[in-house]
Amino acid sequence: MLPAHRSRVPRLPKGRCPRTTHPDKMLTQAHWGALSVVLILAWGHPPAARACPHPCACYVPSEVHCTFRSLASVPAGISKHVERINLGFNSIQALSESSFAGLTKLELLMIHGNDIPSIPDGALRDLSSLQAAAPNSYERHLTQEHDVTTSLASLKASRGQKNRASG
Predict the structure, then answer these.
(1) Burial grade of 62 (CB within 10 A; 0-12, 13-18, 19 or more)
(2) Are 133 and 110 contacting, i.e. CB atoms less than 8 angstroms apart?
(3) Is residue 128 a contact partner of residue 153, using CB atoms and an 8 Å limit?
(4) Which residue has the higher pLDDT, 163 or 74?
(5) How confident is the model over 151-158, as a mean pLDDT?
(6) What is the chain's alpha carbon radius of gyration, rounded to the nearest angstrom?
(7) Residues 119, 143: contact at Cβ < 8 Å?
(8) 64: closest CA among 35, 99, 29?
(9) pTM of the predicted structure, to 2 decimals
(10) What is the residue-wise DSSP string for the chain?
(11) d(Cα 47, Cα 165) in Å, to the nearest integer?
């Protein structure tokens, strides 16, 4: 007869538990897990979604919303893939030649509610896709500049033709 305190279940060697992975394999699994997270974060979003200038909000990768942020200047780090920017109602008093440099896909620029008395030559040179700017006084300024974008000029012309045809 066996003593009551002894079990008939086979015992594993000390330091081993059933259903565990070898320590070397655990490190490998942890590395793969970490690598997967890094890859998902790096490649999981389109380039435009990766960076949003502080303190703006980018709800969609093609838009930057910076209204009512008390900005003194156009924020740095705007993605070159952005199509719409709203900088309305800030404290911006001047634009520089580099404020919108490289933003060739920008279609809508809203800078209303700021105190910008003039736009320097070349500040809007890269905005080849620009279709509208707010306030309208900036659109008039754009059409008078030597570096005016052809898309904005053609948009203004087509608006005039539509208005004459409907009126």
Answers:
(1) middle
(2) yes
(3) no
(4) 74
(5) 49
(6) 30
(7) no
(8) 99
(9) 0.58
(10) ---TT--SSPPPPTT--TT---HHHHHHHHHHHHHHHHHHHHHSS-HHHH---TT-B-SSTTEEE-TTS--SSPPS---TT--EEE--SS------TTTTTT-TT--EEE-TTS------TTTTTT-TT--EEESHHHHHHHHHSTT--HHHHHHHHHHHHHHHHH-
(11) 42
* Centroid of chain to Cα 30: 31
The domain defined by 47-160 carries CATH number 3.40.190.10: no
Per-residue pLDDT tens digits for 88-139: 999 999 999 999 999 999 999 999 999 998 888 888 899 999 998 887 666 5
| CA-to-CA dists, residue 122 to 34, 100, 129, 155, angstroms | 46, 10, 15, 20
CA distance 16 to 158: 79
Calpha distance 40→35 (Å, rounded):
9
- The answer to whether residues 94 and 115 touch, using CB atoms and an 8 Å cutoff, is no
